[in-house]
Amino acid sequence: MDAARLPTADDVRAAAERIAGRIKRTPLVHARKLSAITGADIYLKLENLQYTGAFKERGALNKLLLLSEADHKRGVIAASAGNHAQGLARNAQALGVPAVIVMPVTTPDVKVRQTRELGAEVVLTGHDFDEAKAAAAAIEKERGLVFVHPFDDADVIAGQGTVALEMIEDGPDFNCMIVPIGGGGLIAGMALAIKDLSPKTEIIGVQAALFPSMANAIDGGKRNTGGSTLAEGIAVKEAGALTRQIVRENVDDIVLVEERILERALSMLIMDQKLLVEGAGAAGLAAILADPSRFKGKTIGLVLCGGNIDARLLSMIIMRDLARSGRLARLRVQLLDMPGQLVRVASIIAENDGNVIDVGHHRTYSDLPAKMTCMDVTIDTQGQEHLNRIIENLRKEGYEVEIAAY
């Protein structure tokens, strides 16, 4: 198939047959807890359970299987610092195809190492994706390799669309499917399959508000694009030429979600649904949280497109979620600078079943009167009501208490 032509629903079906048995058919699960919280009937497609932790393997494998034997001998190249790199590397290795992945020098070491472990030659160059892509184009010509685009390729789009076929086969009749959009490969392929097999199903794309590239491409908007987003997997500055055509014809709406809601959605998937996802994987749930009345009572399919998240970022998100729910709090308590005050404050907290996990005592760096001091105490609680009770009892004992902002 000519990679520059628009794929069709038939191409998606052919891709499904082609990659069957080589790619994990991921579960579609009924998210009962999230359904109860949101009022929508939510089903989750767990693409975070793919071998490399993301749906990208589908398109990469379909592309590789359609290449000629001569192309296999030449080898393939891609520019990517994320899931596309590992998806292509893994399947190229399985097929015995040499693979070169060009990554920016800023790529985290863990991603570089994982890509190399999957058998690819990694070239580190450039400080961002655009510079890495330019370097990949030069290497492609120099070595005669086949470039595999992460989303703007008909074969790749068809492969990604197999997600929708499985959801339609395994699930109920969906009123709506909500799909993350970066460059648009996933939603383009899925939209072709959905409109062919379930034309009444509404298709909604979701983008991080900081990267509204597809929304701009469709409605001619001039929204700023760029910034630091939790959903780095869909942080694409320019939508694909092929994908935007398919999206324009087949996708019913595109919504933009703010970072705070993305973070809340990711926390809910981890804490309430016990599923590890990356920021992009939480985008569909974020769209529901941003406008719950729109989706209330509807049967909705969400694609958890990936689960590759940095451990330090994950830790920070969990701690921030605990702080917002009142289960973790830092209190600033004013007290007289005299013996026994620290012990008394800690005793009041303990008497109210709070757990002190960190204490800071400030004498010098304070604008309080000389005979006063303050302590910052971090406590573990059972939730907001429990925290309020602890604060109330401290104040009853005469202590001035403030809650530190999170």
Notes on the structure:
Its EC number is 4.3.1.19. It catalyses: L-serine = pyruvate + NH4(+). Its cofactor is pyridoxal 5'-phosphate. By secondary structure, the chain is an alpha/beta fold. It has three domains: 9-54 and 154-318, Rossmann fold (3-Layer(aba) Sandwich), CATH 3.40.50.1100; 76-144, Rossmann fold (3-Layer(aba) Sandwich); 326-403, Alpha-Beta Plaits, CATH 3.30.70.260. Helices cover 45% and strands 19% of the residues. It contains 18 helices and 14 strands. It has helices at 9-19, 32-38, 56-66, 69-74, 83-95, 109-117, 129-143, 154-160, 162-170, 185-197, 213-219, 241-250, 259-271, 283-290, 292-295, 311-324, 341-351, 384-396; strands at residues 28-30, 41-46, 76-79, 99-103, 121-124, 146-147, 176-180, 202-208, 253-257, 299-304, 328-336, 355-362, 372-380, 400-403. Strands 1-2-10-7-8-9 form a six-stranded mixed sheet, sandwiched between helices. The protein has a four-stranded parallel sheet with strand order 5-4-3-6, with helices on both faces. Strands 12-13-11-14 form a four-stranded antiparallel sheet. Helix 6 (109-117) links the parallel strand 4 (99-103) and strand 5. Helix 1 (9-19) crosses helix 10 (185-197) and helix 13 packs across helix 14 (283-290). The longest helix is centred in the middle third of the chain and has 15 residues, at 129-143. The protein is elongated and about 80 Å long. The model has no long low-confidence stretch (mean pLDDT 91).
CATH topology of the largest domain: Rossmann fold
> What's the total count of β strands?
14
**Stretches with pLDDT under 50, minimum 5 residues:** none
Distance between the termini: 53 Å
Largest sheet geometry: 6 strands, mixed
Mean pLDDT, to the nearest integer, reads 91
CATH class annotation of the largest domain: Alpha Beta
Number of domains: 3
Tally of alpha and pi helices = 18
- Based on CA atoms alone, the radius of gyration comes out at 25 Å
Shape: elongated
* Share in β-strands: 15-25%
